[in-house]
Amino acid sequence: MPLKDGSWRIPPPKNMNWVWKISSKLTVATVGLYSKLWLAWLNKVRVHNKEILDQAMLNRPKFKGLLTVSNHTSCMDDPLLWGVLKTRQLINRDLMRWTSAAEDICFTNKFSALFFSLGQVFPIVRGDGVYQKGTDFAIEILDQGKWVHFFPEGKVNLTLEFIRLKWGVGRIIADCKVTPLVLPIWHVGMDKVLPTCSPYIPLINKSVTYLVGNPIDFTKELKFLKDSKKTPQEIRKYVTDKIQEEFKVLKNVADQLHTELTR
């Protein structure tokens, strides 16, 4: 299914006037500060290996994009997850992430589409495959050396089961001109901060465990796969499977850390 009329509100970089830029900066800063208030100040979050995230955000080569990937257990995982960052990072639009959201949930009218677009969120049409405007845009952003966050499960995981990842993340990594740095993250407890059942009200004084994994650079592996004449489908499956394997390791560790935190 194609994007609905009005869903795509992000102007091309050359047409991004000063009104859009200022509005976007204010939106990103406001949402970032809200996230810090709710996650870091009103709840109890323990972050493991945060220095790896800081290093990837601030000290990677300028030409190399950053793709963070994480599990998805709450409708507010993004932006709340980034409440662990420093305030000066949260209010810096140029430094902060771009991320995707389901078109049929977050881009249902012109107002919501504009708000999310100003907050550096782009629409994904679920069921529309790996080749669509949203994944193309993610590749474009990464090729500019910027940060994109992606939820490769493709939905809020209501059952918290370990589910198969969607291949869109593999396509994004494989098709970038410069292979991005991939940073996996696993979190536990976000479904308690914002329950997945009615009345969907963010809560306080809940425990969240946040585990940052080791960065993955697929540059050499992708070159080998492409030189070996592997098909695009085989390549994106390989990349997605590698992320899935890393998620499994992180999940086991994060679950144990969270159990210790909540004793």
General description of the model:
It is a single chain. This protein has 263 residues and is of the alpha/beta class. The chain contains eleven helices and eight strands. Strands 1, 2, 3, 4, 5, 6, 7 and 8 form an eight-stranded mixed sheet that branches. α7 packs parallel to α8 and α8 (168-175) crosses α11. The termini are far apart. The model has no long low-confidence stretch (mean pLDDT 95).
Q: What is the CA-CA span between the terminal residues?
A: 47 Å
Structural class per helix/strand content?
alpha/beta
Name the overall outline.
globular
The biggest beta sheet reads:
8 strands, mixed
Mean pLDDT: 95
List segments where confidence is low: pLDDT < 50 over at least 5 consecutive residues. none
Beta-strand content estimate:
5-15%
Supply Rg: 18 Å
Query: What helical percentage do the residues reach?
Result: 40-55%
What is this structure's SSE topology?
Elements: H1 18-41, E1 44-48, H2 50-58, E2 66-70, H3 77-80, H4 87-90, E3 98-102, H5 103-106, H6 110-118, E4 121-124, H7 133-143, E5 147-150, H8 168-175, E6 181-188, H9 190-193, E7 207-212, E8 216-217, H10 219-227, H11 232-261
Parallel strand pairs: 1-7, 2-5, 2-6, 3-4, 3-5
Antiparallel strand pairs: 6-7, 6-8
